[in-house]
Amino acid sequence: MPKIKPSIPKGTRDFSPQTVAKRNYILQVIRGTFERYGFMPIETPAIEKLSTLTGKYGDEGDQLLFKILNSGDFLAKVKDDQWSARNSPEVAGAISEKGLRYDLTVPFARYVVMHRNDIAFPFRRYQIQPVWRADKPQKGRYREFYQCDADIIGSDSLLNEVELVGIMRDVFYQLSLHPSIHLNNRKLLQGITEFLGFEKSYNAFLTILDKTDKIGTEAVCTQLKDLAQDDAQKDKIDQFFKMIGGFGSDSALINGKPGMLIRKLSQLKSMLKDSPQGQEGIREIETIYDHLNLIDPEFRMYMYFDPTLARGLTYYTGSIFEVKLDLPGINIGSVCGGGRYDDLTGIFGLEGMSGVGISFGLDRIFDVLDEMNLFLDTSVSSSKALFVNFDEDSEKYALLGLQQVRQAGINAEIYPSAQKLNKQMKYADTKGIPFVVMAGSEEIKANKFTLKHMKTGEQQQLSLGELLKELRK
User: What does the pLDDT look like over 13-25, one tens digit per residue?
Assistant: First the structure.
């Protein structure tokens, strides 16, 4: 049988124990913050029906879905004319009925509809699981990656948006990162679309507008003018971008809120005076800022109103968020995002169920912390102590001590066979185990153990009780 060179699919990765320990550190921070805000965990299957997934992420998202071939003769349902015409969408529909989940929000909406009789609304849920996208792999973008979602569904209160802003702030502060939380509103964008005359090309308009932070205002303005129908529309585009120019940090305050925010919202109110949707979007932004100002006067240090933020997912209907990190020399893109969706569960037959949620990108956050050397300098080993194995008598004596140490809630292990001391010490050092416990003939006679601190080399001869006390420190 020919030998196969081992490999993994592009866009996927193996994780060493050291990497897993670092990822778990991030997950502990995120999970702990979710639970501190009263969110409860759920999990959903990696595989969903394609009828659940398709049509929820836009045309581009549908193309990135990983499809799973039907079991058995998957070509049985393909018609000859479909095959000969090379009709890919129809063939795909015939040979595949399931796919890997693209995100956690759509499966969550499906979960809510199926379990609505068992849920107390408003439902505060968090979910930390992998998702899959057939995207082009690059740094910070993988085909398999984890999302860490928090959603509140069954309430249209804007207090929920304020809670999610608090979660985003708290998570990144605990990770020693300073976030820029960008806020916009799809209702406001609808009003801007109407003002600029792009109602018939709404999705194309949002796609271009959302590139502002990547290609700059001038390039976006040019692309929108290429989409415009006449000079009057082009003049409105110039008027809009002139009005929003200069967004950013503003230390000057008006009634406790950033002065620039007040001025820009005032100008937008005037510009969109004939748009009820646009006016509603502005009111929602003002309400969120009012609440943030009440609970955290320093919110202006991390919160930014960004009228060019659109986000690509089609199910957003109100507030939208995106978190970016301003790091010199590190261009990682968005590390967290989300928004309000009023119609998502309606797709599955449950009307009037408004929700809002956010999603942290674990892998991008990991890349940032790793590149900036911000991970805590702690042992990645699960063991705090290694019991050395000298010989048969030592092994039996060590096993009795090991049992007591574990019953005390201390992670520990024993070297499985009698080997040279240097080899066992090297094993402990490689694994990052901070303590080594030794018991030779002298210790056994004295009913003691010798505890060695691997970092300092210090050694202590201790009774079992003293050993437990030292290891608990």
Answer: 999 988 999 999 9
